[in-house]
Amino acid sequence: MMFQLTTASLLREACFIDGTWVAADDGRTLAVADPATGATIARVPLCGATETARAIAAADHALGPWRTTSAAERSLILKRWFELMMAHQEDLARLLTAEQGKPLAEARGEIAYAASFLEWFAEEGKRVCGEVIPSPFPATRIVVTREPVGVCAAITPWNFPAAMITRKVGPALAAGCTMVLKPAEQTPLSALALAALAEQAGVPTGVFNVVTGDPVAIGGALTSSPVVRKLTFTGSTEIGRLLMRQCAPTIKKLSLELGGNAPFIVFDDADLDAAVAGAIISKYRNAGQTCVCTNRILVQDAVYGAFAEKLARAVADLTMGNGFEEGVTQGPLIDGEAVAKVKELVADAVAHGAKVAVGGEAPGGNWYAPSILLDVTPQMRLAREEIFGPVAPLLRFADEDEAIRIANDTEYGLAAYFYARDIGRVWRVSSRLDYGMVGINTGVISTSVAPFGGVKQSGLGREGSSHGIEEYLEIKYLAMGGI
Ligand code: ADP
Question: Which part of the chain is the Aldehyde dehydrogenase domain (predicted)?
Answer without folding.
Answer: 21-477
